[in-house]
Design brief:
8 helices, mainly alpha, 194 residues
Length: 194
């Protein structure tokens, strides 16, 4: 259930997905891409769930943070399939995380820093590099102090859900007071932290 709930809410909070929507040729292409994305998401979700169920039944008592890696290590033949599977897993994780770092840093620089102080393109690039380094350092610190991947994933989903709900409300009700938006983001984020 949470997997599909994440699939409904998360896209509303990811700027890299919105950029693709803005770049589409027309509404017909947009509708087709939504249908294709939904179907592929359901198929991928089913396959991942099936892999998780197989690993859980074959290796009971496995650490939930290491299910895929341990499952691949114990269940796949060591003739290269295990290495390919683990490489694909880490490639997917790294691809998602670097996209998150780049878009997060871009939002900080473009929407906060560049709006307060006029910056040239070269200055924006320099500031962006520093903000990416700071974001990565914060990510490493979070991973160090909260080594539980499941807890981090739940916290990330909770923060994204707060933002997603605000974005949905703004999409449905065109004129929403800025105070209400800011108040909702602050209260929602504090609730997640608590």
């Amino acid at each position: 259930t949470s997997f599909f709930l994440a699939g409904i809410l998360v896209p509303f909070a990811l700027p890299e997905l919105w950029q693709r929507v803005y770049a589409v040729k027309n509404r017909n292409v947009l509708k087709k891409s939504f249908i294709f994305t939904i179907l592929s998401y359901l198929i991928i979700g089913f396959i991942i769930s099936l892999i998780g169920i197989i690993i859980r039944t074959k290796v009971p008592g496995i650490n939930p943070d290491m299910v895929l890696v341990e499952g691949f290590k114990r269940l796949l033949p060591p003739n290269g399939m295990m290495g390919i599977a683990i490489t694909a897993l880490f490639a997917a994780v790294m691809s998602s995380s670097d996209t998150a770092f780049f878009t997060g840093a871009s939002i900080i620089v473009q929407d906060f820093i560049a709006k307060r102080k006029k910056l040239s393109k070269d200055e924006i690039v320099k500031v962006l590099r520093w903000v990416i380094i700071i974001c990565v350092a914060i990510g490493i610190a979070l991973a160090y102090f909260i080594p539980n991947i499941v807890k981090l994933a739940i916290a990330q989903f909770a923060f994204i859900s707060v933002l997603s709900i605000v974005v949905l409300v703004v999409c449905i009700f065109k004129k929403v007071d800025k105070f209400i938006i800011n108040f909702t983001l602050i209260v929602g984020s504090l609730s997640v932290l608590i």
